[in-house]
Design goal:
This protein has a 5-stranded mixed β-sheet with strand order 2-4-5-7-6, with helices on one face. It has a two-stranded antiparallel sheet with strand order 1-3. The protein is globular and about 70 Å long. Helices cover 53% and strands 18% of the residues. The C terminus is likely disordered. Strand 4 and strand 5 form a beta hairpin. It folds into 2 domains: 86 residues; 143 residues, Histidine kinase-like ATPase, C-terminal domain (Heat Shock Protein 90, 2-Layer Sandwich), CATH 3.30.565. By secondary structure, the protein is an alpha+beta fold.
Length: 249
């Protein structure tokens, strides 16, 4: 490939990044504008609920039920906006040379009480002498925690969650998160990273797309294997810290 072709490709990629940043900023600004009147509605609903705290007539009881419905929908909108802002927010990563095993262990320690409460056994297999990776630790932990919570939801009566790290053939690192939950059919697998697609009632459908975006911003890739009633395996691959950003492409 000629230098001119590479330069043209780089310019196009930069144009697309700039375009995405502009759209994300506009969308984020719109979401913030929606949050302000939503907060006012929620506050007034709370005040009305207090006024009807002891309903005595059928009309008052009906009004109280209607207020509770509006409050639930306001809470759902609030959660949707928060998820959308996480997805749309375009901020530069702050990567640091990191030990993936250390980051995984810290997250497991944080998540373990919730796993115990849900009846989930955490089984780590962390390979020795992994190459260092470049991580924005806060963002990466958030992405991995989202995968853990997704796996937890797939095991409503408890189960096992395996977390495995190893070196890839290319000298990078691979992290696998495996659960023995309900699994997914082909349609769900094909759409699970699409924004706003969700199989959960009231779900925003932005958790997994946000996770994929974070992994790709680390010059990594995420893939999934799953079958109904046989569990799910998420695989994250990251380049070693000394690799160039294009080494995984």
């Amino acid at each position: 490939m000629s230098d001119e072709s590479v330069s043209s490709s780089d310019a196009e990629n930069q144009r697309l990044r700039d375009q995405y940043t502009q759209i994300a900023q506009l969308a984020g600004g719109l979401a913030h504008e929606i949050k302000n009147p939503l907060s006012t509605i929620r506050l007034n609903m709370e005040l009305l609920a207090e006024d009807l705290g002891d309903p005595r007539t059928p009309n008052q009881r009906r009004a109280q039920n209607k207020i509770a419905t509006v409050q639930r929908e306001c809470q759902r909108l609030q959660e949707l906006l928060e998820d959308f802002l996480k997805f749309a927010r375009a901020r530069a990563l702050n990567p640091r040379v990191s030990d993936l095993n250390e980051e995984v262990q810290l997250l497991l320690d944080f998540y373990r009480p919730q796993a115990d409460e849900a009846g989930i056994e955490l089984i780590p297999y962390l390979a020795d002498r992994l190459p260092a990776v470049q991580l924005d630790r806060e963002m990466f932990r958030g992405a991995l925690l989202n995968l853990m919570l997704n796996a937890q939801q797939a095991m409503p009566t408890g189960g096992q969650m395996v977390i495995r790290t190893q070196v890839t053939k290319g000298g990078g690192v691979k992290l696998e998160l495996i659960d023995n939950g309900v699994g997914m059919d082909e349609r769900t697998r094909s759409k699970m990273f699409d924004a706003f697609f969700s199989t959960k009632a009231g779900g925003s459908g932005l958790g997994l797309p946000t996770t994929r975006k974070i992994i790709e911003d680390h010059n990594g890739r995420i893939t999934v294997e799953s079958e109904p009633d046989r569990g799910t395996r998420f695989t994250i691959e990251l380049p070693p810290a000394e690799s160039s950003p294009d080494s995984m492409n």
